[in-house]
Amino acid sequence: MRILVATNFSPRSQRAVRRAGILAGQRGGDVILIHVVDGTRPREVARDLREAQRMAVEQIAVVPELFRVASRPLVVAGCPPDAILDAATAHAADLIVVGAPHRGAARDSGWTVRSLIRAAPCPVLVVGRSAAGPYTGIVVPVDFSDASARALRSAAVLADDAHVTVVHAFEALGKAKLSAFGMPRAHIDGYVESWRSSFAEEVETFLDADGLAGREWSRRVEEGPPDEVIVRLAARRPSELLVMGTHARAGIRKALLGSVTEDVLAAGGMDVLVVPPPRSGVGLGSGPSAHASAGRAERPALRVVTA
Questions:
Q1: Please, is 5 exposed, middle or buried when counting C-beta atoms within 10 Å of its C-beta (0-12, 13-18, 19+)?
Q2: What whole-number distance in Å separates Cα of residue 33 and Cα of residue 115?
Q3: Predicted structure pTM score
Q4: H/E stretch holding 149
Q5: DSSP state of 279
Q6: Are 117 and 246 in contact (CB under 8 A)?
Q7: DSSP for 97-142?
Q8: All domains of the chain, ordered by start, with CATH?
Q9: Tens digits of per-residue pLDDT, 242-257?
Q10: Which tens digits make up the pLDDT trace of 163-208?
Q11: How far is Cα 25 from Cα 5, in angstroms, rounded to an integer?
């Protein structure tokens, strides 16, 4: 595994560097530590490049998680998101690791979680918490799409001794109307549970289609909008990793993904691994999907998404 980790030498990026070292140590991978100098005056940029090179070498030397990992600095000039994406492609990175920004910070500068997620050629891990060791748990929201299948395969690659929880968020159609018509609470609860049971069966079918049903993973089927369910889980399980897949199209799904990622990180919750559609076989678990939709229950389309 080749990991490209971005650093600006701040405490937030230090967390990302430490996490990159832990993952590289687990996977027998190597780390490229990238720092981007953003400037317009040639003399100042040249000076900053020299200073950043020195600091990057020092950071590699003092981070304990990198002591037994093949690591090298990469200091370049340019716009941070563009330079990181170019480096990820040029060096065939399997994973980009970045520190979580302050909530609302640098939204207009382009140095944001969304700007990397939107065009990354490989998964992007956004680190918001201090890295004390390997992840103890991984949470994967699924919506039965190819994006969810990629997220599950990436979780399987990273799991090792971590416990994986597969989560599906659902909304029972017509529940509000039943309440408005004065249906007894017990009947409404039973109606919701019938939806929950149906989706629980579909989760098993989905896992089985990708050859993952036999794993000792937990399954959770929770009622509520996906973004709310994800943020609630992140608040309850802050030491774990959240893995989400993106869809191969722009628009509201990517906007929602960025929003959910930022909400999770701002709440002090999990680190977030975002898995994009595969590009030339690059990335974690990027092999062809074994997912098949045959045999799934027929039901109206729901507003249920991974992110």
A1: buried
A2: 19
A3: 0.83
A4: helix 146-159
A5: B
A6: yes
A7: EEEPPPTTTTTTTS-SHHHHHHH-SS-EEEE-S---SS-SEEEEE-
A8: 1-131 (3.40.50.620), 134-307 (3.40.50.620)
A9: 998 876 554 445 555 6
A10: 999 999 888 877 777 777 777 888 887 888 888 999 999 999 999 9
A11: 14
